[in-house]
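S.,

As promised, the N-(5'-phosphopyridoxyl)-D-alanine run. Input:
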Amino acid sequence: MVYLNGKYIEKDKAFVSVMDRGFLFGDSVYEVIPVYKGNIFCIKPHLDRLGESLKAINIPNPHTFEQWNAILQQLIDYHPQYNNQSIYLQVTRGCDTDRKHTYDKLKPTVYVQSSPFEVVRKEDFLKGVSAITRDDIRWSQCNTKVTSLLANIMYAQEAKQNNVEDVILCRDNIVTECSSSNIFIVKNGCVYTHPKGPHILPGITREVVLECANYCGINIEEVPTSKEDLFDADEVWVSSSTREVLPITKIDDVLINQGQAGELWSLVYDRFQVEKSLNV
Ligand code: PDD
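Predicted complex:
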């Protein structure tokens, strides 16, 4: 079952008009939210970020927090067979009578779906995963979670073709984030990550990872780091709602930490699992 504009229907019966601006222009925003054993993880930060994204592109938020929560809970309840779920939520500016770049007041289209979600098992990541680096060609409003993701999907496809987990993006030699995750560089016991701002998505998982690192007594610096710092790192991690926190142990054929997940990653991963069980 999926949710579309107030109704729960079968996915293959869910259609939107060709006049929807989400279809015509990618004029819409989205969220991806993990659900662990029926409990929505970090619902407030996700819905707050949705509100910020809507505000940034001038779409009125169609629902209150309580209404969103009720919509998501009901969708989750339709899928008791899923141990964990990943919710995809999209709000478009709505449908107009013809295609034009400008818009008037429209009724937003709201679509929500839920998919089964496999939790990352620690033992599967002890050797880490690989990544490649590319120049960050995206626009300068990456902090808004818009569905216009052409650059991101091209990077993702390149990652797939190169058999790596993700693409690490560098803007003017500064490591920003990955095509669908945030990035952390560990050096001499300190974890560095790009500061929030227009060049990265303020990841919800990024915040949880920083809380976990702080809990574990690891120093944190939210400052820009260079591509040279990346290759010189003791450990590199990436985080997202679908990946939790993963160690990257090979970047463009260069091994990080001799190709093994690091000790600090292990501590943060374990704490992350505790946070999940507390955040219900
Ligand atoms: N992507 N940076 C980018 C560019 C992302 O697309 C994502 C998430 C993140 C991590 O954000 P969060 O921790 O809130 O999931 C960072 C989602 C999962 C997606 O597009 O499917």
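The domain at 122-278 is CATH 3.20.10.10 (D-amino Acid Aminotransferase; Chain A, domain 2). The mean pLDDT is 97.

- D.
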